[in-house]
Amino acid sequence: MKLINDYIKYIPASNDPLSADVFFIEGDKCTYIFDVGNNEQSLAEISKIDKDKVIILSHFHRDHIGNIEKLSYKELYLGSTTYEKVGQGSVVRDSVTINDGVRIDIMHCPSPHAKGSLIATVNNEYTFIGDLYYTKPDFDKNLAHMMLLALEKIDTKYFVISHEPKDNIIEKQGLLYKLIEYFK
Ligand SMILES: [Zn+2]
């Protein structure tokens, strides 16, 4: 488990089995979990939480959602494409704001990586974006452009990305410049 600050921590991604980073945000009443991973460690850590659990799934890929069927929770937020795989939870079509000692804004974001992706901003400081910006060489340029516009509008200091053992917290403009270069 690694700490980001005194109320956000995470289990780093693993490669075998492929499992995304799992982020934990401590609220007053609930623990908010961004992606549930697909390995035993993530399942064990999530299962032992005493507080009510609110889960947010970034997108439908197995390494982000694999554990969901083995977990109980109070609320589950996901995008429409993820809902097609999981079959339960509340679909976020635009955005949802939660105030629980922390403020969490869950938003839909266009992404060439996966249809129906969600991102979550915590206290206008950290925005968790999952795999949103990983693309195949033949990525959809129009979607990439829409994603850039959406990310630009977000009131945040940092973006937090999955599957990066180092430098997974990137200052907002830094990430945007990197993406603009990459998508040229
Ligand atoms: Zn993915």
Give an overview of the whole structure:
The protein is α/β, with parallel strands linked by helices. The protein has one domain: Metallo-beta-lactamase, Chain A. Helices cover 24% and strands 35% of the residues. Zinc ion is lined by residues 59, 61, 113-114, 131.
Number of strands: 15
- Secondary-structure element order, N to C: EEEEEEHEHEHEEEEEHEEH
**Second rung of CATH, namely the architecture:** 4-Layer Sandwich
The ligands bound in this entry are:
zinc ion
Which superfamily, in CATH terms, is the homologous superfamily?
Ribonuclease Z/Hydroxyacylglutathione hydrolase-like
Strand order of the largest sheet: 1-2-5-6-7-8-9
Largest sheet: 7 strands, mixed
Query: What is the count of DSSP helices, taking H or I runs of 4+ residues?
Result: 5
Strand content: 35-45%
Whole-number total of structural domains? 1
Distance between the termini: 36 Å
Low-confidence segments, ≥5 residues, pLDDT <50?
none
Overall 3D shape: globular
- The helix fraction, in percent, is 10-25%
**Spatial extent as radius of gyration:** 15 Å
CATH class: Alpha Beta
The residue-averaged pLDDT reads: 96
What structural class is derived from the secondary structure elements? alpha/beta
